[in-house]
Amino acid sequence: MSAGHLRSLLITIPAAMGTTAVMITIAVVSSVFTRSARWQQWMYRKWAAMVLGIVGARVRVSGVERLDPAANYVVVSNHLSLMDTPVLLGGLPVPFKFLAKRELLKVPFIGWYLSRAGHLTVDRASIRSSLTSMNECARLIRERRLSVLIFPEGTRGLGELQPFKDGAAYLAIQAGVPVAPVAIRGTERLLPAKSSYFRAADVELVIGDPVSVEGLTLKDRGALTADLERRVRALLQPQGAGTAQCAQSSRV
């Protein structure tokens, strides 16, 4: 076992897990007294900065100016590592909720936080229950002007972008809000999938141009999904190549 691996097991992982447990506990307890969105945003940004510092992530964010802090979006991102979450929490200029599977509500700490912080959940027990919960999420996004984050691959990729599922497109069309494609590069080196060995690494979060859903119906969700996948794939290319491609249009 290398010195780096040993340090990760004995220092980095316990420090990151301890920080996460403490911050979630504070967030859950404080939510009893206040559910201020500003306080919650400060909490998760603080947690993200602390964890990323512990694991040695050097994060650079580009394209922040493409998102309006006063607007709400369905945010779609590729998914490489468990460390994608703090990168997005710390780097996106708009506060957002997670769209999580409802089973996570039963997990200690994580489930409590998801519930108290007002994150959205989907019941995947059946197609009918899934559609019902997705429609309810769309209503909440529209009425409460929420932004929500979705990983449309459905699982962590092993270095390659996986085909997108159409849930994000369905949600955006039903809610009537634009979709913000973003791409993460480097977290697969920071903490590879199926690994517990942290390695210091450079990470980049690239934000693309929002995609309007005005005039689209649910029949268009397949085309919208394909367009979002193309945009995220372009953003994953070396800087300059993907950005130009994604700037061509704001519609499907």
How would you name the oligomeric state of the polypeptide chains in this document?
Answer: single chain
Report the count of strand segments: 7
CATH architecture: 3-Layer(aba) Sandwich
Number of domains: 1
Low-confidence stretches: 240-252
Explain what the structure shows:
This protein has 252 residues and is an alpha/beta fold. It is built from 9 helices and 7 strands. A 7-stranded mixed β-sheet has the order 1-7-6-2-5-3-4, sandwiched between helices. Strand 3, helix 4 and strand 4 form a beta-alpha-beta unit. The C terminus is likely disordered.
Write a short abstract of this structure.
The protein is α/β, with parallel strands linked by helices.
Q: What keyword list fits this structure?
A:
252 residues; alpha/beta; Glycerol-3-phosphate (1)-acyltransferase; seven-stranded mixed sheet; 9 helices; 7 strands; globular
Task: Produce the secondary structure layout.
Blueprint: H1 3-31, H2 37-55, E1 57-62, E2 74-77, H3 84-91, E3 97-101, H4 110-116, E4 120-122, H5 127-144, E5 148-150, H6 167-175, E6 179-185, H7 187-190, E7 201-207, H8 221-235, H9 241-246
Parallel strand pairs: 1-7, 2-5, 2-6, 3-4, 3-5
Antiparallel strand pairs: 6-7
